[in-house]
# Entry
Amino acid sequence: MNFFTLLAPFYDCFMAPLHKQQGRLLLDRLAPLDSRKVLDLGGGTGRLAALLAKAGADVWLLDSSAAMLKRARRVMPEKRALLGDAAALPFAENSFDVVMIVDALHHFRKQETVLKEVLRVLMPGGTLAVLDFDRKSAAVKVLTKIEQLVSEPALMLTARQLENLLAQNGFVKLETEQISAHQYLITGSKPLPSPIARGRKSDVGFV
Ligand SMILES: C[S@@+](CC[C@H](N)C(=O)[O-])C[C@H]1O[C@@H](n2cnc3c(N)ncnc32)[C@H](O)[C@@H]1O
# Structure
């Protein structure tokens, strides 16, 4: 049985000590949210998606656990809480202003494929926000062992490792904030088309 099938009924209680801090942080760093199209990738029970929707964002959530999604569908429109794999997103390119991945990147087995998919579905200039546990922390080392025991990939990274991974996969304007000894927030953007590429595009119209 999948780890999150077992965890789903208790997940929000388990995250309660971090929920307010994470919510405040995302609302602040991703502002303005009004009418912005946001994808909560690996969004679980929807605890953060619901907060962003309250702030006016047009929020979509995708998660691979039916049990977690069942809970998300209690706090957001059912049609916007999708079952799927973050490594194969069912969205057209340039669909979202913001993609957020909270406490989920380390659960993704194909991190690079996911980041390529995120780049594809983000609009040019759009923002990726990754909030995750810092591999350097002693408490996170313990969490890693526990997750491995239940067959989770537990691919925790240091902030530096994630910055490198994001840069290698095409994200720009990277900003890192150490939230606590255990967590960091890294934001990055999808590059805008270069003026040369834009020029080439309009040239095509004259041929
Ligand atoms: C620790 S929970 C985080 C949930 C939510 N982001 C939060 O902070 O409350 C990690 C979530 O990632 C989801 N997940 C793991 N692998 C996934 C994948 N390949 N595609 C989509 N979701 C995935 C799990 O089902 C789980 O709901």
About this structure: Residues 3-206 form a domain with the Rossmann fold fold (CATH 3.40.50.150). Residues 202-207 have pLDDT under 50 and may be disordered. The longest strand covers residues 122-133.
